[in-house]
Design a protein that fits this description.
single chain, about 325 residues, alpha/beta, Peroxisomal Thiolase, Chain A, domain 1, 10 helices, 13 strands, binds oxa(dethia)-CoA, FabH, multifunctional enzyme, beta-ketoacyl-acyl-carrier-protein synthase III activity, Thiolase-like, fatty acid biosynthesis
Length: about 325
């Protein structure tokens, strides 16, 4: 699609937050129950471990923890809307977001879920920026939360190793175009002809055509990133930090190579968390902010790809969040 820019006030990132379930499953743990090896998983995906939610931890629980951390970090005077991007809502009906809002003592504000696979967080940023541009909201809490580890069949070695659970959140406030943290032009897209490539009729029934998904992911994230950078007036050589959806380190390395972004400018945490779906980008932002890999002034390009097929990208200059307290535990509330 043609990159779009909201025509009212800009949406500005003013805080980040994150949450991971405490239980960690290593590749070696998986070898005890699946016909796989640590070497196979690491060499094909870059993943060494992932956090897995127990039966007592819902998507809403993770979303509340990440959102609460973002709110604590920015202490906005008001929150006008809440969006939860997720592919794994706790129930088909009702949506997860109203319960999350109520648990955050935000009962009464508009709150809705948004499903766009692993691109969900970028779609949620775009719709939230639209609410701010239209004057419908001044501050929006945007959460990506998923329990993707619940989707594969527990005995499917081709998908179980790939996924983990978690949530990340950002606070978007009304601001001015071009100021640090302001979301730049949005590139979003979808292609339903690829709907069967990643599909799950219910938890435990995930089907993924890995090789095809791999190819589409590289092509779509590269193209969207290029468009977003151009629309923002950036040369790709000027990108300081590439923040790709953490699907798999081979995919993200290919994207970086296609864009000509040096490997060292690409942020990654897939080794520790696996593919966490809509939580992937905000989890990585929170982590990289906490450990200093993401600094004020960094020209930052976010890009994602997921089931649908869906994809997107957005450029922003990373803001100074120094008033924000660093999340505990090296970047994640646990
Ligand atoms: O948000 C997007 C989400 N999707 C993704 O990120 C997935 C994108 N795709 C991929 O990352 C890769 O396609 C995979 C990591 C899923 C698979 O890597 P691949 O290099 O495409 O492997 P493959 O599917 O072609 O399988 C190669 C072999 C097969 O054996 P045969 O048929 O050659 O004998 C598989 O059965 O590897 C086998 N295999 C495994 N072996 C050990 C598949 N999974 C495993 C495993 N351990 N866990």
């Amino acid at each position: 699609m043609t990159p779009t820019t909201a025509r009212g006030p800009a949406a500005v990132v003013s805080a980040v937050g994150s949450a991971l379930p405490p239980d960690v499953v290593s590749n070696n743990d998986l070898t005890a129950r699946l016909d796989t090896t640590d070497e196979w998983i690491r060499s094909r995906t870059g993943i060494t471990r992932r956090h897995i939610a127990g039966a007592d931890q819902s998507t809403a629980d993770l979303a509340v923890r990440a959102a609460a951390q973002a709110l604590t970090n920015s202490e906005p005077e008001y929150v006008d809307a809440l969006v939860v991007a997720t592919t794994t809502p706790d129930r088909c009906c009702p949506a997860t977001a109203p319960a999350v809002a109520t648990r955050l003592r935000l009962t009464g504000i508009p709150a809705y879920d948004l499903a766009a696979g692993c691109t969900g967080f970028l779609y949620a940023l775009a719709t939230s920026a639209g609410l701010i541009a239209a004057g419908t909201a001044r501050t929006v809490l945007v959460v990506g939360a998923d329990r993707l580890a619940s989707l594969p069949h527990p005995e499917d070695r081709t998908t179980v190793p790939l996924f983990g659970d978690g949530a990340g959140a950002v606070v978007l406030r009304q601001g001015c175009e071009g100021e640090p943290g302001a979301l730049g032009p949005m590139v979003l897209g979808s292609d339903g002809t690829g709907a069967d490539l990643i599909r799950a009729a219910r938890p435990g029934a995930l089907h993924m055509d890995g090789a095809d998904v791999f190819r589409h992911a590289v092509d779509r994230m590269s193209a969207a990133s290029r468009q977003a950078a151009t629309a923002a007036g950036w040369d790709l050589a000027d990108v300081d930090r590439l923040v790709p959806h953490q699907a798999n380190s081979r995919i993200t390395s290919f994207v970086a190579r296609q864009l000509g972004v040096p490997e060292g400018r690409q942020l990654s945490n897939v080794a520790e968390v696996g593919n966490t779906g809509a939580a992937s980008i905000p989890l990585l932002l929170a982590r990289a902010f906490a450990d200093g890999r993401l600094k004020p002034g960094h020209r930052t390009l976010l890009t994602a790809f997921g089931a649908g097929l869906t994809w997107g990208a957005v450029a922003l200059t990373w803001p100074d969040l120094s008033r924000t307290r660093l999340p505990e535990g090296a970047g994640h509330d646990r």
